[in-house]
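Think of the structure tokens as a kind of shorthand, similar to the way a musician reads notation: each symbol stands for something richer, in this case the local conformation of the backbone. In the example below we present two proteins back to back. Begin with the first one, reading the sequence and then the tokens, and try to describe in your own words what changes along the chain.
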Amino acid sequence: MLSMRPALPFLLLVGLCFLGAASSKPKPIVLAYVGGFRGLVEADAIAVEQLTHINYAFVDVKQNRAWLHNLATDTTNFRRLNALKIRNPNLKILISIGGWAWSENFSDAVLTDTSRRAFATSAVQIVQQYTLDGIDIDWEYPGMKGEDNVFRPEDRENFTLMLRALREELDRLGRQTGKAYLVTTALPGFPAIFAHTNMAEAHQYLDYINVMSYDYFTVGPQAGHHTNLYATGNVPDEQSGDRNIQLYRQAGVPAHKLVLGIAFYGRAWQLQTPDPEAYPRTIVKVERGRGFTQIKDSLLNNPAYKRYWDRRAKAPYLYHADLKRFVSYDDEQSVRAKCRYVRKNGLAGVMFWEYFSDPKAYLLDEITRSL
């Protein structure tokens, strides 16, 4: 049937097509890890309108099951976080299983078909019971020593099989609820992790991978940028966000599944020598780094601390000459650089650890402006 509606002007049609194409572009992920392991979360203080995802950290692993370590506070926190969807209906809330302290039992839990199915089923039951949106795996680390975790060569294959089991169980739940659920993982980017995982296969079961592009320098014997975007060129085998992303790409992971990490906290050391620009930066002792709100409100306003900007690494640091104290962190300038990198390289977005390390949302506000 011929339409009696007047034809739209050609330029208007082109404009409408352009707007339709632009609107179909996925919104960048802005994912916050929110620590519930300390107890009750002050959920109302979260600037949830600026987030797309919250990963609730952490759920423990016990007797081959996902296990709520602090049942009373965990369940209250789930209720409080779900209430945030009134303010942001598109918000996704996932449980993050493991973490540095609670990864010790992963290897046992996913060792056999039976144990993997039990683990996946128990994790999905938590998602179903508390009306959540998916599961994030923070196994530190498959096939490698973390804090005090069991690890074995079979972890390489079992990591992928675990993700497949989670995907299958969540898809089964989705057929009941009519809802799509997420499977994600948080992993470091250091080269050894790729010897103990098969990311070319594993990513097929993942919606995205949160690349922990921080903690490059921790206990010593040297200090340096702990969350730099690029290498300085002054440190052998130097880690950086860009290097991490490139390693995942080389391992077969598409860019649109990669989420770049931002540190909402700093790391600090006392140096052996008085020149913070001299390499190597040998340390005398490890000190407390603090969250970014404290760094900005207390240290950046303190004339005893001098701020430096490493143009090559796209990373700031502070130095207190009298104390020989070196502080590495992310700030607004480095966050802008990371967000530009995400856009330029077609990554999924950014994530950060941990929300309440910057309760005044200095860095989250910068992420919102930059993305």
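Once you have a description of the first chain, move to the second and do the same.
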Amino acid sequence: MKALIAMSGGVDSSVAALLTKESGYDCIGCTMKLWDLPEEDAGAVKPSKTCCSLDDTEDARSVAYRLGMPFYAFNYKDEFMEKVICPFAESYEQGRTPNPCVECNRFLKFGKLYARAKELGCEKIVTGHYARIEQGPDGKYLLKKGLDPSKDQSYVLHCLTQEQLAHTLFPLGDYTKEQARRIAAEHGFVNANKPDSQDICFVPDGDYAKVVQRYGSGEGTRPGAFVDLQGDPIGIHKGLIHYTIGQRKGLGNTWGKPVFVCAIDAAANTVTLGDSEDLFETRVEVKDFNWIAGEAPKESIRCTAKLRYRQKETPATATVREDGRVILTFDEPQRAPTPGQYAVLYDGDIVLGGGTIETGKRHVDL
């Protein structure tokens, strides 16, 4: 069988390539060229904590050649701009807080790359994600957490379908990061001690607003009113793109006490401020939900849920409405459910699915 290995240049995808080759697959390595640092920033920022740089491509090529596998670099910059960067900017302009890594997985790694794998006659695509795939007794594929809880990446994979899971391998799902680095060092990989990528590749300096201004329409840059929970003006904000739910720092004004961003209204161009306790919500509405099993449950289910990548799962009840949206009712109020982020549901170590947070309200109509 043939496998196409997505190689970012990091240690994880390199070890995934090695393990796949050792398991008997005829392997092809590839890197997706997604983005170039803008010319005006090229001399000012060295994106050492992101993926997708020229050095990363060369590291991936080095490992592929060391393993004796052919290597290709695929140019998907136009698709990445259309499917990831522009929607990222638009989402911020609408007062939402997106997670572009999920969209990159959805449209590029398991969309474009999956299609390219089929063109190359590959039965499987392989990535270095820390997650597991198993086939259940009913024949359906299960997406499960990686065994290393500190590295589990199942949250950003909740968009996968049954077809994609059937043709995907996650060789690192049973390994820890320390084991992966040790394997890389034992095989002389140039990236054995390479730091993990931490930043979003197209935001190497962490300045989200600058990216939105560069690629957006300019809608979220207009100053507007800070308002209190009653809707009364209490100050002036510098543009919606500078704020996200739960934010306390960088508000630019002093109100004599700590205040937090509780809501963002793009239509009114207002940012609502309140106390910390005003951020907590019991019910959250989720749209565009992907059920890994391929179908939604017919009745309410008990589960655990995460509302952001690094959050600990918490118990909740999930109810599917007739329009497909999911209402999550948490046992305990959750801090700052943020529109644009993803709610992901679990049953133990099995990922049930996930979708985009639309609203977080104490009272959501069922």
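Compare your description with these statements about the second chain. Residues 44-48, 361-366 have pLDDT under 50 and may be disordered.
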